[in-house]
Amino acid sequence: MKYALIGCGRISPNHLAAAKANNLEIVAICDINKDNAIDKKIKFELDDSVKIYTDYIEMLEKEKPQLAAIATESGKHAAIALDCIDRGCNIIIEKPIALSLKDADEIIKRSKEKNVKVCACHQNRFNKSIQKIRDAVDKKRFGRMFYGTAHIRWCRDHEYYDRASWRGTWEQDGGALMNQCIHNIDLLRWMMGDEIVEVVGMTDRLNHPYIEAEDLGIALVRFKNGSYGIIEGTTDIYPKNLEETLYLFGEKGTVKAGGASVNRIEEWNFSDMLDNAEEVKARFHENPPNVYGYGHTPLYADVIDAIEKDRKPYVDAEAGKRALELVLAIYKSAATGESVKLPLDECSTLDFKDRFK
């Protein structure tokens, strides 16, 4: 299967490693900064048949890849995705899928019209720990779900934002919730039943005066099934990333996923006693070198299989929209000082451009 990468920045090595691990035929890599593409070509020992482009439209039309990954700044995801879809190219879109609900809806609509597979790159769904927890949810081992919490306690310093001027802007990124925390926000919504009734949020910019968006977000979520969610996300932790954790509390079960990126099970208690807690914690434990984890490779495998079997990817465009919607609902509640009902009408990060001025 012919594959191309659009965007050769911070997350691109994970995509290239996943493409190679899944034996994709890498035909091209593209970045507006040619040096970035050259650097990745050298580091991944890609042969001369792999072309380098600075114009992704030219690349799509000349190389005609069957699958492309979009790993550019967030604000360009939607436009590039639509250009790929219009050319019949299946896509993996780095989170978030878009920065507005209008754009997310257009991606969903047009991909259905063209029968193009779209995957939102929420790779943590493929963590061994998360897959084990999801299996317990699907088998209703928790009984009635009471509430869940998502905590993302990370550090992002001045140097991080200096390396890319788009970071922390409303036009191209959003803040901590949209960039760093959306993976765990996605997991919380997915585990708790997906359908949300109401969101109450607060956001602030406490320690990064040089960015436009928030570095702290806190929210309460009420789900349609009667359960609740708590979200705490920040990039203010000193002096380095502390943890990303997901707790689920039910009538008959308590689970905690922790580690750098919810990559290990730290609590596992169920009334049915179907498995040994210590064995589960030992078996479903990964120690990735960074917060991106190991999920890209199985995510790629799923997308390839979805293309070959003409089915939806495990993490489809609708899933990407749901994660986006929840973050935007928190932003809206924080900006208005009121609770926000879901489903959310059209909303975009650009609606909050003057939030902290």
How would you describe this protein?
With 357 residues, the chain is of the alpha/beta class. Helix content is 34%, strand content 23%. It has 2 domains: 2-124 and 296-315, 3-Layer(aba) Sandwich (Rossmann fold), CATH 3.40.50.720; 126-289 and 321-351, Dihydrodipicolinate Reductase, domain 2 (2-Layer Sandwich). It is built from 12 helices and 14 strands. The protein has an 8-stranded mixed beta sheet with strand order 13-12-11-7-10-9-8-14. The chain has a 6-stranded parallel beta sheet with strand order 3-2-1-4-5-6, sandwiched between helices. A hairpin with a 5-residue loop joins strand 12 and strand 13. The longest helix has 20 residues, at 317-336. It is globular, with a radius of gyration of 20 Å. It starts with a strand and ends in a 16-residue tail after the last strand. The mean pLDDT is 97.
